[in-house]
Amino acid sequence: MAPPNPATPGLLSVPRITTLLASLIVAVGSGTNYVPYSPQLAARLNINHTQLNIVALAANVGVYSSGPFWGRIVDSRGPRIPLSFAFVFLFFGYTGIRYFYNVGVEDGATVSSLSLALLIACSFMTGTGGNAGFTGAINSTAKSFPDKARATTTGIVLSGFGLSAFFFSTLAHVLFPGNTSSFLLLLSLGTALTSIIGLLLVRTIPLSAAESGDHTVATTVAAEAEATIFHHGNDSHTPLLDEEIAPSSPTEEYVSDARGIELSPPRSPSTARGRSTSHGRSLSRSRKQEAFEGPNIYGRALWINPDFWLLFAILSLLSGTGLMYINNVGSMSQALFSQDNPAYDEVEASKWQATQVSTISIMNFAGRIIIGLISDNIKNRFGFPRSYSLLLVSSLFFSSQLLAAQITDVTNLWKASALVGLSYGTIFGIFPTVCIEFFGLSHFSENWGYLSLSPLVGGNLFSIAFGRNLDAHDPGETTAAVTAVRTAAHQCLEGRSCYVATLGLTGAACFAAILLSALAAWRERRKLMAASAARPRIVWEDTEN
């Protein structure tokens, strides 16, 4: 076997750390879909909440639907093409939104259908561009660090994506308080700048064969090792036998099965030489693959793989729960704040909404780092697959929905928001590495892109359920506070009863995800045990006196 390449940088070398930090910066500029400018945009353009939701949905569709496309490109061509498109789409997307905001509409007028369509297109561009940059960053990080540190390093990059909304919102509040136009300009220039940094600094740093999680490389090395073992010199006294080779004399015994090979030394060196050569030639490629290769599943094989649909279902249920809460926590806080509150204050209500957004963003950031450390520790110290962490993540989501359903005071809503943010961060912090473990590293970004379609299912389903729940609790204009709020936005103002039924639905979904996570962990553990049992092992037996 060839010696390790001395030019390969070390784990904590400057090239690897540079890629990690640059990828983190790109991720911070890629997760801006949840920054809070939508209410101001709706008021400026005089569009209703249905139209505003369509604009917001376009960004989410851009994120999740473009995943397979960017994934295939970055797997085959590297991160530069996606990062280039990220620069273009993010810059022109936010510039277009800012243009429509600055132009606005006259008092009493409504935005034209053409302008609304272009605004939706700009929103779609921001989502697609953000995902392009993020895909390039996470792929380069995953392929630049060995398996033992992969969950931690990808978790760091993923945390940047989760922190994005908080970072830009806070920066805008400090530099341009209350100026939405300047905020959109900051988004346009800031996200484009992070893409440029990625173009200059993000690249895949090669791993040595021993460090790589790519089983294609590992197989080549293993084959070379086999050749060294089976084609040794004429002084060999240790033939390796399998079921295809019969013993040459009654004095020799062997047992061969899928788990190992037992041998007793031959009486003649010449017999050893001949049988060693014969065995080396008889090894089939399928046996080598069975013994040394890990998963490399993609394309049609991915779509017919039951594990793919199992993970798809788990991610859909959990991410859908998170998206439902994140997209509607403003309505939840408003419902709690306005209940039995004759002194309703719109400014004060907005502060409580901003508190939830900041809390979710910070905990989202923390969750992506924490789960990476936990899953790496579980695998490296205890030898358990990272899919075991899905049980923890599903349990966190379930607990968050139970907690949210019990809160009746807006001053306590931050507790549920913190737990939802933590849970949402952990699910997207662990799932990319679980995707690698189940399906391999070679086509990771493409496979992850297909898995990333799942939030569209759960997110839309639960969000629609939340909206229907609100509509079913449309209050009458019985108080001045209700009248004021209904004039600004059609919201339910009956407190927890406005949405608690939806939390019951998402709570049940999270409990189902716990059961599915247990099934996924069990299936992965069974596969690993089967693969371990199938690896050839040599048992030496000396029958000579």
UniProtKB/TrEMBL annotation:
Q: Which residues cross the membrane?
A: 12-32, 52-71, 83-101, 113-134, 155-176, 182-202, 308-326, 387-407, 419-441, 448-466, 499-522
The membrane topology of this protein is: Multi-pass membrane protein
Cellular component terms (Gene Ontology):
fungal-type vacuole membrane
UniProt KW Manganese keyword: no
Disordered: annotated segments: 256-288
Tell me where on the tree of life, at the top rank, the source sits. Answer: Eukaryota
Does the record bear Ligase in its keywords?
no
Q: Where is the composition biased (Basic residues)?
A: 276-286
Pfam families hit by this protein: MFS_1
Where in or outside the cell it occurs: the entry states: Membrane
Q: Which GO terms describe its molecular function?
A: transmembrane transporter activity
Swiss-Prot/TrEMBL keywords: Membrane, Transmembrane, Transmembrane helix
UniProt protein name? Major facilitator superfamily domain-containing protein
UniProt source species: Mycena albidolilacea
